[in-house]
Amino acid sequence: QVQLVQSGTEVKKPGASVKVSCKASGYTFTDYNIHWVRQAPGQGLEWMGWIYPKSGDTNQAQKFQDYVTMTRDTSISTVYMEVSRLTSADTAVYYCTRGVSSGYPDWGQGTLVTVSS
Amino acid sequence: QSALTQPASVSGSPGQSITISCTGTRSDVGGYNYVSWYQQHPGKVPKLMIYDVTNRPSGVSNRFSGSKSGNTASLTISGLQAEDEADYYCTSKTNTASYVFGTGTKVTVL
Q1: Closest CA to B34 of B19, B51, B20, B47
Q2: Which of A76, A81, B3, B87 is least surrounded by Cβ atoms within 10 Å, i.e. has the fewest?
């Protein structure tokens, strides 16, 4: 079955960077986009961007284009999402999810990133 | 890209039907049949309920149905049950190949 397993909880200081990983299994890794979605405490879901593992092409929401980087390592079926210049507004649970047509049927367990001085 | 507009809350009694709207523009909801809906219980991962406007994934109850008219998509839950109490989000592809979520709707079963 499809599984997306994310890296663990992170606590960072303002101005630092964080890199979250998402390891995929149970399907052909290069065939589907991986999307990143975040959810701040008590808030709604926010789409951040996607990466196409076969080519490495990415597409990010405009607000994230200058400080979020998405990469992949096809040899280990893993995608990464790095957020730089962290502020308290980046405190959230970050999810990776597999895109199939217009839906996201499979989700990682979520990674809590807390930004605090 | 602005978030799609959903009502903050919708409520209904067990057995009733409710509808959640998701309003966008011609650049997203109105321009593509790429709308999906998610259910999220507190502290849980979102669950896909509807994709491509009207399609239900395997395992999702047929009490859930989706539709679209113009720039507004809708999710209807019929035969409302206590377990349906959750937050619901829509999302749509946009004309820049990005995606955007709705503002979210809290469904309360009275």
Answers
A1: B51
A2: A76
Q: Which residue of B has its CA nearest to A102?
A: B34
Rounded to whole angstroms, the Cα distance separating B71 from A21 reads: 36
Indicate yes or no: CB of B101 within 8 angstroms of CB of A95: no
pLDDT of the residue at B101: 97
The two structure tokens encoding residue B52: 């491509």
pLDDT tens-digit readout, A37-73: 999 999 999 999 999 999 999 999 999 999 999 999 9
| Distance of alpha carbon A15 from alpha carbon A105, whole angstroms | 34
* Torsion angle in degrees (nearest 10) through CA of B30, B31, B34, B38: -30
C-alpha distance from residue A55 to each of A25, A51, B5, B109 (Å): 18, 9, 34, 46
User: CA B19, CA B34: separation in Å to the nearest integer?
Assistant: 19
Look-up of token digits 């980046």: A90
Q: What amino acid is encoded at B23 in this protein?
A: T
In this prediction, residue A102 carries a pLDDT of: 85
Contact: B96, A105; criterion CB under 8 Å: no
A38, A40, A57, A58: which is closest to A48 by C-alpha? A38
